[in-house]
Automatic annotation (TrEMBL), chain B:
This is Spermidine/putrescine transport system permease protein. InterPro entries: Bact_Polyamine_Transport, MetI-like, MetI-like_sf. The chain crosses the membrane at residues 12-32, 66-88, 100-121, 133-154, 175-196, 202-222, 234-254. It comes from Paenibacillus sediminis. It holds the Pfam family BPD_transp_1.
Length: 324, 267
């Protein structure tokens, strides 16, 4: 069943196209991520779904109902803002109860829902605190609790972990994923962090310059990127051209050999990168002005020298066409 | 550790402070002087203060000042706040122009404000009195309220209101539960400034006041022409004290609200 349906929505700001016509359906309970560099239009799409921006053209459906012209307070979905936007003059509890109060939910039910949201986000100890008395991670949790207390059909998240440090971000990513599973509601997540997108999402929409580059599961996007942008934005990739066509080969599919004659291309080792779980060689090709990155196999215990002549090759099955 | 500042800097600030505050200190000291002659100190007394409160003219001027200050504060606070709120939804070109017009009364010399209002009131035949002084005070106080509330609104941003709307609040609920509580410290600060400005104003009032609407500053001016009496010193001391307290309160309200950018008074 479709929870969200975008039909040819587009957005122009003062004559400039920010989002090119886009159609997309999102299933109930799906975790969908809009991924792309800043300024690619992902936040604008999210804000159109939330109702803060009006699409220049096209329609938005929520659970079968057309919501294109509905104001934000009449849409049964909630947005977690990038900088949380907690109400500074209200306690944690009051912040979380805000949506229920506005909709005049009976007090007994309000209390129940607030407690439930507090429990799910592990905030039970902090109910009487004000936002400025909380750490960044705790504020983030309040923002999520405030949204889920309304039991929305869809939760929109605009780079919700962007302002946090790496350690905290990692642990909150896991929490978010678990939360989404236990709530079973549809999440639409905006981020520019490709690793985060890969880890959380059921499907990823890669965006660039207001256009969709590819939509697919993390595996599809990693293994068969359809455009040059998709191939280089997610993970590392080597882009080769032959006969006017471009194809990509992942570093882990590149083989490096000392027997130069057996390889398809020749080059010189330019750098050796050892990161514990990955061991990479950067090879400068002789005939082309490009570097090839090769991720070595774990079992590989050959020692390499910078400046050494090597050959690189790959199985043609691992070539992915990404354009011409 | 010793301060790296040049020793002369300290001396300089001391001299500056003396330069600025010495006249005020003298007025305060002599308001407690037992002798009627200012130049000679002959012991501490409260008697000039108590005689003030039995002086019919002083009390009348005080009542006039307070009535005018209260009315002009209430009206200018409401108008200034509404102006600040409505200006947010105005287009940017229009807003720039309106901003300029609203800032102007702060910059225009008081004497011109007073004179132009006097010309206006005479032209349209409004008799000079409390009403004209109130209108005059509203015209300049409004700008200050507008500036302060606008600063507060800008500091607040749009996200909180969007969050409220997203959570199901209607426009009115958003204003009532989010916008208003957020800008209340600004409104109170603006009102306190408006009150202080009205209470202290001499120049503009001087032009538009009538026989029955003598305010405290105008009364003081009239008295001083006949020589400075200790009662006037006492009256000035009270005015200084009230103004300082009101401005400190306004400053306190402006800084209220954690996580908000600190704003200082545009005085």
């Amino acid at each position: 069943m479709h929870m969200i349906e975008l039909v040819q929505i587009e957005k122009h700001f003062s004559g400039q196209v920010v989002v090119h016509p886009l159609s997309l359906t999102i299933k109930e309970g799906e975790f969908l991520t809009l991924l792309g560099p800043s300024g690619c239009g992902k936040t604008t799409i999210l804000r159109m779904i939330a109702g803060f921006e009006q699409p220049t053209d096209g329609d938005i459906f929520l659970d079968g109902q057309k919501v294109t012209n509905l104001s934000p307070n009449r849409r049964d979905l909630n947005l977690v803002f990038q900088h949380y936007a907690l109400f500074p003059h209200m306690t944690v509890e009051e912040n979380i109860a805000f949506g229920l109060k506005m909709k005049k939910t009976p007090p007994s039910q309000q209390k129940e829902r607030v407690e439930e949201a507090l429990k799910m986000t592990q905030l039970t100890q902090l109910t009487k605190r004000y936002p400025h008395e909380l750490s960044g991670g705790q504020q983030q949790r309040v923002a999520i609790a405030r949204a889920i207390a309304n039991k929305p059909k869809v939760l929109l998240l605009d780079e919700p972990l962007g302002a946090l440090d790496l350690q905290l971000r990692k642990s909150l990513q896991t929490e978010l994923k678990q939360l989404q599973r236990s709530l079973g509601i549809t999440f639409i997540y905006v981020t520019h962090d490709q690793e985060e997108a890969m880890m959380l999402s059921d499907r990823i929409v890669i965006m660039n310059n207001g256009q969709v580059e590819q939509i697919g599961t993390p595996r599809e996007i990693y293994e068969t990127p359809r455009t040059l942008f998709a191939a280089t934005f997610i993970g590392e990739n080597n882009i080769f051209s032959s006969d006017g066509r471009l194809f990509a080969v992942r570093p882990e599919n590149i083989r490096v050999v000392r027997e130069i004659n057996k390889a398809s291309r020749k080059g010189t080792v330019q750098d050796i990168v050892y990161l514990g779980n990955v061991h990479k060689l950067i090879v400068q090709l002789d005939d082309e002005p490009m570097n090839v990155t090769a991720a070595l196999d774990f079992a590989d215990d050959r020692t390499w020298q910078i400046g050494e002549k090597v050959g690189v090759s790959w199985n043609p099955l691992h070539e992915v066409m990404v354009g011409s | 550790m010793k301060s790296k500042n040049h020793p002369l800097l300290g001396l300089h600030s001391l001299l500056m402070m003396i330069f600025i505050y010495l006249p005020i200190v003298f007025i305060v000291i002599y308001s407690f002087n037992d002798s009627r002659i200012n130049a000679k100190w002959s012991g501490f007394t409260w008697k000039w203060y108590s005689s003030l409160f039995t002086d019919r003219h002083v009390m009348e001027a005080l009542m006039n000042s307070l009535t005018i200050a209260v009315v002009s504060t209430v009206v200018s606070t409401i108008l200034g706040t509404v102006a600040a709120l409505s200006m947010r939804t105005t287009g940017s070109k229009m807003r720039a122009g309106m901003n300029g017009l609203l800032y102007l009364p702060i910059i225009i010399p008081d004497i011109i404000m007073g004179l132009s209002l006097l010309v206006l009131f005479t032209q349209i035949h409004i008799p000079l009195g409390k009403i004209t002084v109130m209108i005059a005070h509203i015209t300049f106080s409004l700008s200050y309220v507008y500036v302060i509330v606008t600063a507060r609104l800008t500091g607040m941003g749009k996200q909180l209101e969007e969050a409220a709307q997203d959570l199901g609040a209607s426009s009115w609920q958003t204003f009532r539960y989010v916008t208003l509580p957020q800008i209340t410290p600004g409104i109170i600060a603006g009102a306190l400034i408006a009150f202080t400005l009205s209470l202290d104003d001499f120049m503009v009032s001087f032009f538009v006041t009538g026989p029955s609407s003598t305010t405290l500053p105008i009364y003081i001016y009239g008295q001083v022409k006949r020589g400075i009496s200790p009662e006037i010193n006492a009256l000035c001391t009270i005015l200084i004290a009230v103004s300082v307290i009101l401005i400190l309160l306004a400053q306190m309200f402006l800084n209220k609200g954690q996580g908000q950018k600190k704003t200082t008074l545009p005085l």
